[in-house]
Design brief:
The chain has 312 residues and is of the alpha/beta class. The chain contains nine helices and 15 strands. Strands 2, 3, 4, 7 and 8 form a five-stranded parallel beta sheet that branches. A four-stranded antiparallel beta sheet has the order 1-11-14-13. A four-stranded antiparallel beta sheet has the order 9-10-15-12, with no helix packed on it. α5 links the parallel β5 (144-146) and β6. α2 runs parallel beside α7 and α4 (123-138) packs parallel to α5 (154-163). The longest helix is centred in the first third of the chain and has 29 residues, at 2-30. It binds zinc ion. The site of zinc ion has 5 residues, from loops.
C-alpha cells in the first residue's frame, strides 16, 4: 500500500515541480535589463572637436548630419566672436554655435582662455563663468568640459563636475587624412569590447571624415555627442528597474533613479531589453517606443518612474 501511495504522489509532485520550474524560468527569462548603449547598440562613438575653428561647424558638422550623426564642439569662450568671420583663421561665432546646437550638436566648454588649468588661480573664471557664458549665448548649458592640453588637477576636476555632467581628458588624436583602415580597426575593437570610443580632433580632412562616417553608418554603433553618451552611462549605472509580469506575455515596467541623481539624467532616454520569445509585435501606450528585435522586446523610456504597460 505504501508503495502504491508513493507511486500516486510522486507523479503529482513531479507535475508541481514542473509547473514551478516553468513559472520560474518564464519569470527569469523576462527579467528586463538596461542595455549598455541606447538602442542596444554594440558600442558608442563620440566625435569631439577642440578649439573652435569655423571649419568644424561649416564643413565637419554637415558631414555628420548627412549620416544622421551629431558631434561635440569644445569651444574657447574668450576667442568666440559675436559675428561670423571669414578667412582661414575664422573661429566659430556665437550665432553659428546657436545654429549647431539647434541642429542637435553639443557645444562643450573648453575654458575661457585655454591656459593650462594646473597653473591658474582663477579656476572659477575658466570653468564656471565660461559655462555660464555658453548657456547665455547658446541657450543650453554645456554638459561637458574638455581640459586645455588635456591636463587637470583633482581640485579643478571637482569644481568642473559641480558645473558639468562630464569632463574629457586625453584620447588618441584623430587628425588630418587619418588612415581609414586604422579608424575602422579602432571601431571594431570598440565593438568587440562594447566600449565607448571617443575621437579627439582639431582638424580632420573632410573627405577622409566622410568616408569613415559612410563606413560607420552601416555598423551597430551609437554615434552621439560626448555629453549624451556620458549621461546615458551615468543614468544606466543609477537606474533601478521595477518590473511586474502581469500576464504570460507582458507586464508593467518603470525605471527610476536615486534621489541624488541630477535632473539631466532624469531626461536621458534609456533602452530596456526584455526577453520575449515569439514573434508578436509589442504594444504599449502612445508615447513609448517599443519594438521587437529577434527574441527580445526593446523599450526606450526616460527614468522618471512612470509605469509603462507592455504586451507582446
Ligand atoms: Zn584645446
Amino acid at each position: 500500500m505504501q508503495h502504491a501511495a508513493v507511486a500516486w504522489v510522486a507523479p503529482a509532485m513531479r507535475f508541481y515541480l514542473f509547473l514551478a520550474l516553468t513559472a520560474y524560468s518564464a519569470l527569469t527569462a523576462a527579467e528586463p535589463q538596461i542595455c549598455r548603449w541606447l538602442g542596444d547598440k554594440t558600442a558608442a562613438v563620440s566625435f569631439t572637436f577642440d578649439d573652435g575653428p569655423a571649419v568644424h561647424v561649416r564643413d565637419l558638422a554637415p558631414r555628420l548630419e548627412a549620416n544622421g550623426m551629431r558631434g561635440t564642439f569644445f569651444i574657447i569662450v574668450g576667442r568666440t566672436p559675436d559675428a561670423p568671420q571669414t578667412g582661414p583663421k575664422a573661429m566659430i561665432s556665437w550665432p553659428e554655435l546657436r545654429d549647431a546646437a539647434q541642429r542637435g550638436h553639443e557645444i562643450g566648454n573648453h575654458s575661457w582662455t585655454h591656459r593650462d588649468l594646473r597653473k591658474v588661480t582663477d579656476l572659477d573664471h575658466e570653468i564656471v563663468a565660461s559655462a555660464e557664458r555658453i548657456r547665455e549665448q547658446v541657450g543650453v548649458a554645456p554638459l561637458s568640459f574638455a581640459w586645455p592640453f588635456c591636463k587637470s588637477t583633482p581640485e579643478a576636476k571637482a569644481l568642473c563636475l559641480r558645473h558639468h555632467l562630464a569632463e574629457r581628458g586625453y584620447h588618441p588624436l584623430y587628425e588630418g587624412t587619418y588612415d581609414p583602415a586604422k579608424a575602422l580597426a579602432e571601431t571594431e575593437a570598440a565593438m568587440a569590447a562594447g566600449s565607448w570610443l571617443v575621437r579627439l580632433s582639431h582638424g580632420i580632412d573632410g573627405a577622409a571624415f566622410s568616408s569613415h562616417l559612410a563606413d560607420l553608418v552601416s555598423r551597430p554603433v551609437w554615434v552621439a555627442p560626448y555629453g549624451t553618451v556620458a549621461a546615458y552611462a551615468a543614468a544606466r549605472e543609477r537606474a533601478k528597474i521595477a518590473w511586474t509580469a502581469t500576464e504570460a506575455s507582458g507586464g508593467s515596467l518603470a525605471v527610476t533613479l536615486d534621489d541624488q541623481a541630477p535632473a539631466t539624467l532624469r531626461q536621458t532616454t534609456l533602452t530596456v531589453a526584455i526577453a520575449a520569445p515569439g514573434t508578436e509585435v509589442p504594444t504599449s501606450e502612445p508615447g513609448t517606443i517599443v519594438r521587437r528585435v529577434g527574441e527580445r522586446v526593446l523599450i526606450d523610456l526616460i527614468p522618471d518612474g512612470r509605469a509603462v504597460r507592455l504586451r507582446w
